[in-house]
Each structure stands twice: as structure tokens, then as C-alpha cells.
Amino acid sequence: MNEWCRKKPLEWQGYVNKEVKVTAAEQEYQGWVFTVDPVSANIVLVNFKDGGKASIVAVMGHAVEAVDVLREGDSSMADQLTSLFMPAGAQSYSR
Amino acid sequence: TISASGPVDCVDLRSEQRARSFLRERYLRSLIAMVKRDAKFTMYEKVKVDAVFAGSDIDILNFQVEDLETPLGVQKEALIRCPDVISYSFEIDSSL
């Protein structure tokens, strides 16, 4: 098990809404962190594109070698990421 | 694996569980968003395959896919073993 998989949920949560560079199996992936699955440690990255599209890349936790934070996200980026996968009209009832 | 903690760590455990459920819910929503979409899987040994995503088991050990494009032809139904995968990608509309 690599170092990334051994992290705690609170540590993973610290990466959410930040732009990162993930190194895995000699490849690099860049994007905004939507989430890290606490079961598999898979990290889900989002890149917003022109024309209202978003490309989603998930790097499997077992393959992650390094995660470097490039940029902190602001609240509008956080809102954009949160609304991305929520069903239309969904409302959050818990904080 | 979830390690047991004493009563002293109760508050820590609660915030950890909150983080865990926050992250997990988001991950499951990202999987739901991928269902019936074209996905690209980058695997070890420089293998890249395209398929339509269908589902996953709860431990994220296997992905069920449809129309898996392999060098030997298109497989109507297939399971991809997650330990063989490095990354997967797909596109969605973000203008909701």
C-alpha cells in the first residue's frame, strides 16, 4: 500500500477544491480535486472546458505516487465543483 | 480499515466519519454520473481501452462495462479489474 492510500479522510478532505498535479505510473494528471474515495483512495479531478463541458479524470489510489497542490480554490470554484454531480434541484440539508 | 479509538478520541472520530461520508458521497455521485457514458481506461503495460461504464462494486475492485473495445474486437459485457487500471476519464456537461 502506498503513502497516499494510508492517509486519513481528514487529510484527503484537505485536497478537495484545490488544483493539484497527480503523478501515477510515470504519467501526470492535473485538475481540481472533486473528491477522494475513502475506500479506494481514488482521486477524482475535474477540468472545466469551453462550451459547458467538463472532463473528469480519476486516478486509482493504488497508482498514485505523488500529489502536489498547485493552487487553492475560491468559493466559486467550490460551488462549481459541488453542483457538478448533484441532481438538478437537489438541496443540501446537512452541514 | 477503520481503527478503533478510545472515548478520548470521540470528537476526532466524529469529524473523521463526517469527512469520510462527505468524500464517499461525492465519489458515489461521480460514479453515477459516469453510468452509460463513454469512458477511457488507462491501464498498465500501456493499454488504453474505451468502453461504456455500467457500474462498480462497493469496494471499487471491479468496473462493469459494456462495448469494451479490445484489439480482439468489441466485448458486449466485461469486467475490468481495478488493480489493472491507472486512471479513467469521461466527459459531462457542466452547464446545469
- Based on Cα principal axes, name the global outline of chain A: globular
Count of individual beta strands of chain B: 5
Could you tell me the CATH topology label of one domain in chain B.
SH3 type barrels
Main sheet attributes: strand count, strand direction, barrel closure of chain B: 5 strands, antiparallel
Q: Give me the CATH fold name of one domain in chain A.
A: SH3 type barrels
Q: What is the averaged pLDDT score of chain B?
A: 90
Short description:
The complex is a heterodimer of chains A (95) and B (96). Helix content of chain A is 16%, strand content 41%. By secondary structure, chain A is an alpha+beta fold.
Written account of the structure:
Chain A has 95 residues and is α+β, with helices and mostly antiparallel strands. Chain A has a domain at 9-72: Roll (SH3 type barrels), CATH 2.30.30.100. Chain A has two helices and five strands; from the N terminus they run H-E-E-E-E-E-H. In chain A, strands 4-3-2-1-5 form a five-stranded antiparallel β-sheet. Chain B has 96 residues and is of the alpha+beta class. Chain B has a domain at 35-91: SH3 type barrels, CATH 2.30.30. Chain B has a five-stranded antiparallel β-sheet. In chain B, strand 1 (38-43) and strand 2 (47-56) form a beta hairpin. The radius of gyration of chain B is 17 Å and the shape is elongated. Chain A binds chain B through residues 8-10, 12-13, 16, 24-25, 27, 29, 34-40, 42, 44, 48, 52-60, 62-63, 80, 83-86, 88, and chain B through 15-17, 19-20, 22-24, 26-27, 29-30, 32-34, 42, 44, 58-60, 82-83, 85-96. Strand 4 of chain A pairs antiparallel with strand 5 of chain B.
